[in-house]
Amino acid sequence: MNKYVISLLIALSFVVPFSCSDMDDNAVPASLEIKDFVWKGMNLYYLWQADVPDLADDRFANQSQLNAFLEPYSSPTDLFNALRVPSTTDRFSVIYSDYNLLEGALSGNTLNNGMDFGLKHINGTTNIYGWVRYIIPNSDAATKNINRGDIFYAINGIPLTDDNYRTLLFSNDVNYTVNLANYSSDSSGFVTITPNGESVTLTKTTLAENPILLSTVINQGTHNIGYLMYNGFYSSYDSQLNTVFGSFKSQNVTRLVLDLRYNSGGSINSATKLASMITGQFTGQLFAKQQWNAKAQNYFLANNPGSLENKFVSGLNSLNLNRVYVLTSKATASASELVINCLKSYIDVVQIGDKTTGKNVGSITLYDSPTFAKSNVNPNHKYAMQPIVLKIVNKDNFGDYTSGIAPTTLLPENMGNLGILGNVDEPLLNAAINQIVASGKMLPPVPSIIERDFTDSKSINSLGSEMYIEHK
């Protein structure tokens, strides 16, 4: 194979500005052009490229040999999955046949009925029940009689199990009926789900979810406590987030409770801005560092080492805090974990709730174009990839939390006492307030058996827990 050459494009984006030169004069057949894009993109950018023999730079001597390798794969998706390391290491790389859907998911625009939910197994069996975490404003569910804490056991009258929940809940069907139930558990943690005969029919629409679900200031004695429930790092909402912090600042907020329990990730750039709004006294200092595969890393180090660094930014409404209280759950992932891990190098991060997901890697969108950016994209198809391309660490070079980040105070959500989000009596928020005011109030007991979600409406799709760098 000929050596890779540096593109003439300047590295203003975080995409490595080099492309695969033609291996020889043999053309890529039209029937293989998508698969050729998949192999060359993964060869250049995939974080674990060195661990996949079929992605080795010397795997093929010329284009003809690569073509012969690509031919047997039945689809670009089959090839993509064959080029990944085992799912125990790479849980998050994805490929889409339509980049419009990929772009929509990364910006919070999805086909959605507005019911955000978690799923749990019933007493360790293959039977499943769901619970409503929150309702997205301006959605179909917001117009229906369904609320946080509601329990459902079936869809369209069919009880949920391991074998059917994906088909019933995550298909492209626009409508489905949610069959509701009552929840109870005994002192041993044995759960009983009892159908109650009630149901709600929901309709999916193209929905843009504003990640700022709740923001308010809670006055407790001498403390002005800002509370923000932030459910996704979508850059199109950065200005609204900055406005929220401007309101906090004008109300003299001196403590912040940042609720990330249902935030499964998003833009690294947005995460850096949020950290800069929480602080403000570290402008220009290193927030996070990126570690790419050897090929990309060497290029950056030689040509633009600063592009591997994410620094605290200026010009935002910042609170200059030296402590932040973060509410987490098993669904807290990627960019949310980035904020927690990287802020710990600078301020006191008090984490309340449950252990997080454990996603310390990030991705980029690759299109079939000479530079893998969207400009000059191949008009013959709409395939795009979102492979994992980097690991991210804090300024102290720590980023090894693949088993999750453990909370300072363990307090998993309790199905029997979920509370109302934003209400001072909601258990997790109440625990944070009590620590802020040093009330000495006892925490709710943690059950001996913690009933955790095995998946939820966001993380069922790998894109739901992406941490990504955007093209500039």
Which second-level CATH architecture of the largest domain applies?
A: Alpha-Beta Complex
Please compute the radius of gyration using only Cα atoms. 23 Å
Per the CATH scheme, the topology name of the largest domain is: 2-enoyl-CoA Hydratase, Chain A, domain 1
Q: Please outline the major beta sheet.
A: 7 strands, antiparallel
Query: What is the share of helical residues?
Result: 10-25%
Distance between the termini: 31 Å
Morphology call: globular
**Count of the domains:** 3
Q: What number is the mean pLDDT?
A: 91
Q: Percent of residues in beta strands?
A: 25-35%
Based on secondary structure, the structural category is: alpha+beta
Name of the top-level CATH class of the largest domain: Alpha Beta
Annotation field: number of helices? 10
Fourth CATH level, the homologous superfamily of the largest domain: 2-enoyl-CoA Hydratase, Chain A, domain 1
Q: What's the number of extended β-strand segments?
A: 26
Enumerate the spans where pLDDT stays under 50 for 5 or more consecutive residues. Answer: 1-22
